[in-house]
Amino acid sequence: MYRDGLKRTGRLFKMKIRLQFQVAALFSAMMLTRVMAEAPELSLPLNCTIGESCFVQNLVDLDTGPAKQDPFCGSATYDGHKGTDIRVRDIAEMRIGVPVLAMADGRVTGIRNSAPEKLVETKADRRAVAGKECGNGLAIDHGGGWVTQLCHLAHGSVRVKRGDRVKRGQPVGRIGLSGFTAFPHVHVSVRKDGDVVDPMTGQKPGNACKPSGKGLWSKSAGQQLRNATAALLQTGFAGGPVTSSEVMKNKIRRPAENGPLVFFAVFINLQPGDRIELQVSSPEGVFAQSKTDPLVKPKATYSAYAGRKSGIPAGVTVTGTARLFRAGRVIVEKTGVEFSF
Fold it and tell me: Model's pTM, two decimal places?
């Protein structure tokens, strides 16, 4: 009787412990559900299509140590990055005027509109924006401790003032080159009670990446962002090899008749093992081609080119094709890029 009683007591104790853990887990899930229910649903800050007219350059770094990890368990971020960077192709597109939109209803709690615009390319440039890395931008309070911030807007473009109420999709400024920026984009950061939250996963940095986790983006925005693993920014022909910086600044040397002719392609967010193939075809066959070795390290931006020192005469048309291979299959392709004199 005594031994049997001990066994029953042990079983009851174990059942009690399991029940306590189950209740705690249920409580945590309920609290997370409640927090997520209170969170604003965010739409894209640009009226664009990810991967076609705008591109994701950097995501939130979820690793709080010296390493880096984006919400997809990849490398589309940099150490300590606290937001999501959505860019346009180049400065020429930016100068057309790209409206930045409020991502949810809220009240403007702060703005900056007078910061100068300049690409950050040197250590001196970085020192010049210390303490004002956001450049021109604004903060919007969405209630419940949730705040979004939009950065790197054009000088004088912020069209709201502190205290204004804004609606989702309302234009509040334009993409610019203010603050700590090396390419034209809008930096989006999300905070809950002052703490950074990754909008892809709904988690604070320090939590594990969750490629399919529930985030703060609307369904349509989330679907676009989840497919933003790599992108082809730009292709074209030049009179010699070009860098991604020259392409972004639109400083490309135009080919001369019968002179050097180069087909280039600029990619972003490449991973180890990725491989690029470029080919230029003429009426006589293959004019030029190149195949890179598999990448050893991730590349935030990468330019490749294929060409010849002797170009083409007037009246001849060449056609360029660019392909990005990942895990043995084509994930990005651009065909039919034509050039002639």
Answer: 0.87
Adjacent-strand bridge partners of 290: 278
Mean pLDDT of the chain: 90
Rounded Cα–Cα distance for residues 68 and 41 (Å): 26
Strand-pairing partners, residue 339, are 318
CA distance 145 to 137: 19
Report helix, strand and coil shares of the chain as percent, to nearest 5. Answer: 20, 35, 45
Find out whether 106 and 206 touch, Cβ atoms under 8 Å: no
Q: Which domains occur in the chain, in start order?
A: 55-226 (2.70.70.10), 231-339 (2.60.40.10)
* pLDDT (average), residues 310-320: 94
- What whole-number distance in Å separates Cα of residue 70 and Cα of residue 210? 9
In the 3-class helix/strand/coil scheme, how is 315-338 assigned residue by residue? Answer: CCCEEEEEEEEECCEEEEEEEEEE
What is the model's pLDDT at position 281? 97
Return d(Cα 165, Cα 142) in angstroms, integer. 10
Q: Which residues of 135-144 are buried (b: 16+ CB within 10 A; e: fewer)?
A: bbbbbbebee
Q: Which residues pair with 104 in a beta bridge?
A: none
Rounded alpha-carbon distances, angstroms, from residue 80 to 58, 236, 310: 11, 34, 47
